[in-house]
Structures are given as structure tokens and as C-alpha cells.
Design goal:
The protein is built from 19 helices and no strands. It is mainly alpha-helical. Helix 1 packs across helix 8, helix 6 runs antiparallel to helix 9 and helix 16 packs antiparallel against helix 17. The chain is globular and about 55 Å long.
Amino acid sequence: MKSKTLFHMLPLLLGFFVMGFCDIVGFLSDYVQRAFQWSDVLTGFVPSMVFIWFLFFSIPAGNVMNRIGRKTTVMVSLALTIVGMVLPLITYTTISCMMAFALLGIGNAVLQVSLNPLLGNVLTDSRYLTSGLTAGQVVKALSSLFGPEIAVLVVTRYGDDSWYYCFPVLGAITVVTAVWLWLTPIKREQGSGASLSFRDTFRLLSDRMVLLLFLGILMVVGLDVSVNYMGSKLMSARFLWDSADCKYAPQTYFLLRTTGAMLGSVLLTRIDAVSYFRVNIVLCVASIVGLILSESASLAIVCFGCIGFFASSVFSIVYSVAMQHRPEHANEISGLMVTAISGGAIVTPVVGYCISIMGVVGGLYIVLACALYLLVCAYAVKHT
């Protein structure tokens, strides 16, 4: 990779760090509840105020990119994020905090749609694009780790009611990202300039490969959310671990997923992405089967780690293949793929229902079904 290309990538990778800030909202919800005496129902709605916007804004953001370009769309998303972080500092009320979380969610949805394809303006080689997307997911994961730590430091120093003092720190990083990106010369893509409707975008799903990959994103998000959701439940129900020890299952999954993504970002510059996808998803399916059959707590923890490791690069590969399948519609396809992220949330209620009627193994069968679909997807796509 040329040094100039690497220099252009740096503000984009910092953009992925900003993308991870939304994960702090779930952590902050308890502090907001105590500050305003919110009910459990209203507090439970806080994370939705962030992630529901993926459903409503992803496709419009993709269409807007056709008119104003990817870099400008990223700048708009960063501006929305900054406004959301400044709002509680100006006026600290229930309404202003809800509006702040909503703006963070809208900004994050637009950023997800626009930042990934903007990376394609810098990394034109398909191998480097998939690797770059995987590296971006690593940076986003690191942000998800550091965000709560910043909030804890602020709360420890200034008290629970001052939780929003973490926003100036996160906002400053966002401002630096925006300025750096604005000053970085990135080749502008040749957009169609056309104004497209929801129907025009959803019509792309009539393409069998686009539909296959759209559902692939839905399934990999569903798998990821479900394994995190089920980790503690399985260790408690099957091996009678207490709550303090149960945390090791999702922690192991997250640690190995991050490690796998870091390794994937390196290997995908040298290995064909589809071949890498096929090998990893086969091993991921085997790990889930091992988890279903495991009678040892140690083996179960190992299986959780293996699932995270082998599934770590799947999102980036599926997203990259989708973008390259119909490059003339890359902006609209990006919107579709990010919409599928919100759709992945429907898998968790299905997992919960199966657990209620079949026990914890019922939820694992749903996770296995997601992985089996991705296995079909891996052998249906062509080599890049």
C-alpha cells in the first residue's frame, strides 16, 4: 500500500472510531435514569433512540450521496454527531438528552452508510478494500471499549449527574476527524446525481446476489447479537455458573472477535476474500455445533471464542462483495446493507422465544441457522 494511500486512510479510520461512540449510550442510560428518575420502560427506549434510525435513514442517506458525494455526506454525519454532543451542555433536560441521543443515532446511521463506500474511493483494489473495512471494524471495536472508560473517569471525578461531561472529549475527537477529513484530498466518485425513491433502492433486491448479501448482513448481525445475548445465559443454565463468572463467555467472544478482525485485516490483503470467507464460516459452523454438544464449561468458553474469531471478518467481506457486485449502485447498496444491520435485531427475539420453549439449546439452533445461511452465501458468491 502506498504511503499516500495510507495517509488518506488515517482520517477515515478515525471516522470508524467516532462510529463506535454510539455504543456508549447503553452504558450511559443508567446514569440518565437516575438523573431524571426515568422509568425502566423509558430507559429501555434509550438504546432504541440510537439504533432505530438505521431503519429510517440508511436508504435516504445512500440516495443523498448520489447528489452531494460520499465525503460531503460523511461531513454531514459528523456535524450531526457534534450537535448531538453539544446539546446537553447547552440545556440539560429530559427532552434535550433524548434529542441528543436521537442525533447521535441519525449521525451514526449516515456515517455507517457513507464512510464505508468512501473508503472505496481510497482503496480501489478489492483486496485492500476488504482489508480496510475489516481494519475499520477493529477501530470501531476499540472505540466501543474506550468510550465507557472515558465516561467512568468523568463520573468518578465529577459525579453521576455529570455523565454528559464525557461529550466534550468525544466531541473534540469528532471535530478533529471532521477537520482532518475536510483537509484530506480524496478523489470524488462519479455519482449519478439522480434522486431515487425507496422503491428504486429496494428494487435492487430483485438482483439475486444483492438479496443474498442483504440477508447475509442480517444474519451475521443476528449471529453476533445473539451470541453476545446468549453467552451468560448458557453458562448459567448449563453449567450453573454465578453471574460474576458468566461474564467470561461474552468477554471471550468479544476479545477473540477483535483479535480475528485484526488478523483478517492483514491476511485479506494477501488472500482471496471469498476463500477466506468460506474457510472461516465452515469453522464457525463447527464451533457452534461444538457449543451445542459441549458438556464441559471449558470447551464451551473455547467455542465462544472460536465463534467470535471465525465470524470476525464476515461482515466486512459480505459488505465489500455487495459494493463490488454493482459498483454503479454502490451508494444505494450501502444504504441497503446498513438497513440490514437494524434488521438483524429481529433475530434476538426469535432466540428468546426458542429459549422459552426449548431451553438454551433452542437459541443455539437459531444461531446455527444464521451460520448455515452464511455458509450457503459463502459458496454462492464468486471469487473477487
